[in-house]
Amino acid sequence: MAAEVSQLLLAVVQGIPAGATNDDLTKALPDVSAATRVEALNILLQQGGIEILKKGEKLVYRAKDPEKKSALPKDADNEEKVVYGIVEEGGNKGIWIRDIRMKSNLNMIQLNKILKNLETKKLIKAVKSVNASKKKVYMLYNLEPDLSITGGAWYQDQDFEVEFVDVLNQQCLRFLQMKRDNAEKKREGPLAFKQMSCCTVNEVQKFISDLGISKVNLAEADLETILKTVVYDGNAERVRQHNGSYVYRAVNSPLPPTGLVQMPCGICPVIKNCSNCGDVTAITCEYMRDWLD
């Protein structure tokens, strides 16, 4: 009986992508007793057909992707499944322990114990975020943290690498100036000079890669961030092409450089989230304080 009911319940749960509550299941199968429904749900949980989450005060049952295998062992209890599911939803940007507690409705002692167990089993991991160095976010163990969490190539152990960024800025500018000097030597007219002095991000990336000054692999997006700081300092211009892409060329600026490249805001990966209040703010930013000092 329970096995047959489990298939009916699975069909109901699959029809509600956001997750079905006990009320939804009772309404869909009014003739099924509570005891049989619980037994059938346990069968689905053991088979890995559904996962259990907690939203507010209610349990929610959600169908699992048949091709997606859970790393949770079959003997994991419901609380562990709830916490694991919440962490999984956070993806590679992770989730604060405060948000896990609010979604799971577990007390801190119980939640800390579950998180510790999951960490010990290497199912989840805690990662420090550059947004708030004293806080940790949790994510699945096999995920690579998002750049907004690690800060990307410009951060090491949550510390902003000012000297590394300075060196990259100087070398990118040197390459642009070399390109400009070579164009000047050819003396082929102003239009040809302007065109020949332009560089693509890919050319700059190859130049930096050949220099071997970076221990990490820098993507084109990383080098474009540095090139923009060269532009902000007034040493280069960014030119839009017909196909929508951009090229860069060195310019002779009559104004002294602004030094923006040394300012953390220039290449901050979470500057879009920065405001006068909240976790990301210049008022409490450790990197801003160090730069000002």
Could you outline the blueprint of secondary structure elements for this entry?
Blueprint lengths: L1 H13 L5 E2 H7 L5 H14 L2 E6 L2 E6 L14 H12 L5 E2 H8 L3 H13 L3 E6 L2 E9 L6 H4 L4 E2 L2 E2 L1 H25 L3 H7 L4 H11 L8 H13 L3 E5 L5 E5 L35 H7 L1
Antiparallel strand pairs: 1-3, 2-3, 4-6, 5-6, 7-8, 9-10
Helix pairs in contact: 1-3, 4-6, 8-9, 8-11, 10-11
pLDDT averaged over residues: 82
Helix-strand sequence? HEHHEEHEHHEEHEEHHHHEEH
Looking at the chains present, what oligomeric state does this protein adopt? single chain
Distance between the ends = 72 Å
Radius of gyration: 27 Å
Share of helix among residues?
A: 40-55%
- The share of residues in extended strands comes to 15-25%
What do you see in this structure?
The protein contains twelve helices and ten strands. The chain has helices spanning 2-14, 22-28, 34-47, 78-89, 97-104, 108-120, 147-150, 162-186, 190-196, 201-211, 220-232, 286-292, and strands spanning 20-21, 50-55, 58-63, 95-96, 124-129, 132-140, 155-156, 159-160, 236-240, 246-250. A three-stranded antiparallel β-sheet has the order 1-3-2. It has a three-stranded antiparallel β-sheet with strand order 4-6-5. It has a two-stranded antiparallel sheet with strand order 7-8. The longest helix has 25 residues, at 162-186.
